[in-house]
Amino acid sequence: MAKRGQGEGSVYKRGDGLWAGAISLGTGQRKVIYGKTRAAVAAKLVAVLRAQQQGVAVSSSQRLTVGMYLTRWLAGAESSVRGSTFKRYSEIVRVHLVPRIGGIPLAKLAPADLGTMYAGMLADGLAPRTVGLAHRVVGRALREAEVAGIIARNVTRLVRPPRAPHQEMRTLSAEQARSLIEMTAGDRMGALYAVALASGARLGELLALRWQDTDLERGSIRITRTLTRTARGWESGEPKTPASRRTIPIGRRAAMALRAHRRIQNEERVLAGSVWHAGDLVFADEIGRPRDGTCVSHAFGAVLASAGLPRVRFHDLRHSAATLLLEAGTHPRVVAERLGHSTPSLVLNVYGHVTERMQTEATATLDRVLGG
Q: What is the mean pLDDT of the chain?
């Protein structure tokens, strides 16, 4: 018998070459799980243990409803996903999944049930993107139930969610971006807009930015964390991906905006006195507390309207920065590193409309060189 790994339980290799693992169900019974490799069996055992910790007894799966399982699965998933992701999962489960399919026995959930739910969500006016997210949440939850042996199959693999329509990307032109920076230079949030356009950073990354993460002499910022608001309050966590930990040069204009912003913040700190929240946040509110991203987005929309600029989302400042760089001939790899993407292919996929224009210009350049 092969030696079992730490934390795997009773995992062993049989004489026929198949791996097996046994686990107690806590009812005097034992469940045996089989797989082609030790790792596959160990993963299944971990899933069963997790299901037991969540209060889902494998032997009682016939009495388990979809709503009961999703609620317990959600509780266990909280520690394994980002705070913002868990908040969205919770909303999807509570608002859409439990009311529509929560009463169905988990073991009897059929592809037709999911198809009916998706059709109903669309009929209620929900966006295909929201329906697609619901499909992914159900799929992730049922995948764990399948691995744990609670259900025989994950029915989401048999259902295709509605395809989200392609949305034309909205960005600010170079002239519009300059107008935004100039018109908000004296605004309380003007520096945030300037740094967003100069860096292409995400809103959560900017709201988590501390003064110790800035180098105003060199004109750069370091992205080391992100800030999200959850049911438990503000949470500071790791950036979205390992590539998201990066240093971004922001240039002189954005650095000047940060210097002016720091002078204003120092005055506010003196006025606030003991009320000031000591968190070293660059884009804190008037007493040093973290700013709410939703409120920032709403305020940004009002700024655009008063400035006579096109209505775009705050996140579109990130798209605008990337588009302006690509249009100026910046290599996609440089743009990818700036945005915190792991590979240039992500940039090329998202900003294909820009690269098409670049290809047209490149063709015209070659045509001139070749005497066309």
A: 85
Model pTM above 0.70: no
Fold classified for 79-167: DNA polymerase; domain 1 (1.10.150)
* Residue 311: both structure tokens together: 């209505």
**Spatial separation of the C-alpha atoms in residues 66 and 49, rounded to whole Å:** 19
Specify which residues 235 forms β-bridges with.
228
Q: How many CB atoms lie within 10 A of CB 91?
A: 13
Rounded Cα gap, residues 48 and 22, in angstroms: 11
- 314 in Cβ contact with 296 (< 8 Å): yes
Residue 194: CB partners within 8 Å, gap ≥ 6? Answer: 181, 184, 253, 254, 257, 258
Q: How far lies 205's CA from each of 137, 312, 334, 337, in Å? A: 25, 19, 19, 15
pLDDT of residue 58: 47
CATH 1.10.443.10-classified regions of the chain: 178-311
What is the topology classification, in CATH, of domain 178-311? hpI Integrase; Chain A (1.10.443)
* Token representation of residue 259: 């210097």
Q: Summarize the chain as % helix, strand, coil (round to 5).
A: 55, 10, 35
Helix axes 66-77, 83-91, angle to 10 degrees: 170
For the chain, give every residue range classified as CATH 1.10.150.130: 79-167
Using CA of residue 59, residue 65, residue 71, residue 74, what is the dihedral sign?
positive
Share of the chain above pLDDT 90, in %: 52
What are the tokens at 214?
């800035």
| End-to-end CA, the chain | 75
Q: Which long-range contacts (CB under 8 A, 24 or more apart) does 22-28 make?
A: 23/48, 23/49, 25/52, 25/57, 25/58, 25/59, 26/52, 26/57, 27/57, 27/59
**Spatial contact of 309 and 172, defined as CB atoms under 8 Å apart:** yes
51-56 CB contacts, 8 Å cutoff, 24+ apart: 51/144, 51/145, 51/148, 51/150, 52/25, 52/26, 56/145, 56/148, 56/150
pLDDT band of 5, cuts 50, 70, 90: very low
Q: What is the average per-residue pLDDT within 138-154?
A: 88
pLDDT score, position 346: 82
What are the two backbone dihedrals, phi and then psi, of residue 310, each rounded to the nearest 5 degrees?
A: -60, 145
Contact (Cβ atoms closer than 8 angstroms) between residue 257 and residue 194: yes
